[in-house]
Amino acid sequence: MNDWHSWAALVVFVGAYALIISEKIHRVAVALGGAGLMLAIGATDDTSAFYSEHAGIDWNVIFLLLGMMMIVGVLKRTGMFEYLAIWSVKRARARPYRVMAMLVVITACASALLDNVTTVLLVAPVTLLVCERLALPAAPFLIAEVFASNIGGTATLVGDPPNIIIASRAGLTFNDFLIHLAPLAAVLVVVLLLLCRVMFRKTFVYDEDRAAEVLALEEREAIKDPRLLIQGLVVLALVVAGFVLHPVLHYEPSIVALLGAGLLVAVSSADTNEVLAEVEWPTLAFFAGLFIMIGGLIETGVIGEVSRALADAIGTDEFVGSMTMLSASAVLSGVVDNIPYVATMAPITADLVHNMGGGNDHVMWWALALGADLGGNATAIGASANVVVLGIAERNRQPISFWQFTRYGLIVTAVTVIVSLGYVWLRYFGRS
């Protein structure tokens, strides 16, 4: 970091992060302003910002969000989310903690098959309606679901974008992730449920009158447009199939989501302007600005320096290396988006594995995946799903502040990372 551009880029990023934390300026304005400064000081340029695969805006994320937001916008008009809200409350007997536990398990399981952003886009509207029916604050439920989505996403190759990068670089298969990470993800979901019972205990206030009102409702009456619902569910099923069959079809999730959104708007009676009005445009703008800022750190070599320093600290001891990789990745992924972090660390990890003589059952890769995926829970902007849910909450007039999210996120991240360290030690080194 001898070039002044590196230090200037670091100052811009740290300053922007501080402003986001302070919440004195809206996070979208901060992200776009920080992106503008990165371009102005020459930390990055238009070619890198808009066209670079590793140091620019991740258009796959942007268009995945756009497509899924449009599909959700159509499904909202059918009454499907109201139906699911009433159904879930009835199954949980309107008990708040049971409702949260149900939504957490559903979110974690769905995130293992879909990406975590798609999952929270589908679950959040149901959650808001459930909380409205039971007169409960939505924030604890939404926050718990974000944690569940990031934990569930660790279980499979397609659950979180960093896993796809790691699988490609390390030659890992879908079944490899299932065998090595799915058991841990299941344990971590149980741990999360226990943590939620403690962290959000003041939220679980049972209102007998409200509960009786909801339990008396007939969920089928919530469906407003059966024909549109059928069309929407068919398209959603095709989109989900496209996500799951990514290893076979080789269509990026963004392409699948856009094709689904276009097909649904084309064949249904939904008004295009009304559907586009449901898109969380500020969230998309925030992601664009954040990607450009992180791209400035990549282009000036800041992230590369951090990655190399981490590699030097690890050395050739595989046990120390995996523990360090998991812990450090969790910390860094709470600050920097885990997609560019993993893209930068993947070739360095490959060199480390080579220097260690091939590695013990890909343990270094599992440590990188766990740290990157679970570290996203640490802060409000640590993972894409976090940012999306904050945008949804703000739009529905139930804003979640940076610190409201982060004070719980730090606890969940610390506990899940400690459990993961124990799992890695026990499974890969405990026998020796």
Can you walk me through this structure?
It is a single chain. This protein is an all-alpha fold. Helix 2 runs parallel beside helix 17. It is globular, with a radius of gyration of 21 Å. The chain contains 23 helices and no strands.
Keyword list:
globular, mainly alpha, 432 residues, 23 helices
Q: Give, in order, the helices and strands.
A: HHHHHHHHHHHHHHHHHHHHHHH
Per DSSP, the total helix count is 23
Strand content: under 5%
**Tally of strands:** 0
Mean pLDDT: 87
What is the straight-line distance between the termini?
41 Å
Biggest sheet record:
none
Low-confidence stretches: none
Measured as a percent range, the helix fraction is over 70%
Identify the overall geometry: globular
Rg from alpha-carbon coordinates:
21 Å
Structural class, from secondary structure content? mainly alpha
In short:
The protein is an all-alpha fold and about 425 residues long. It has helices at about 5-20, 25-40, 45-50, 60-75, 80-90, 95-115, 115-135, 140-150, 160-170, 175-180, 180-200, 210-215, 225-245, 245-250, 255-265, 270-275, 280-300, 300-315, 320-335, 340-355, 365-375, 385-395, 400-430.
How is this fold's topology laid out?
Layout: H1 4-22, H2 27-40, H3 46-51, H4 59-76, H5 80-91, H6 96-113, H7 116-134, H8 138-152, H9 161-170, H10 174-180, H11 182-199, H12 208-215, H13 226-244, H14 246-249, H15 253-267, H16 272-277, H17 281-299, H18 302-314, H19 318-333, H20 338-355, H21 363-375, H22 384-395, H23 402-429
Helix pairs in contact: 1-2, 1-17, 2-17, 4-7, 4-15, 5-7, 6-7, 6-8, 7-8, 7-22, 8-11, 8-22, 9-20, 9-21, 11-23, 13-15, 18-19, 18-20, 19-21, 19-23, 20-21, 21-23
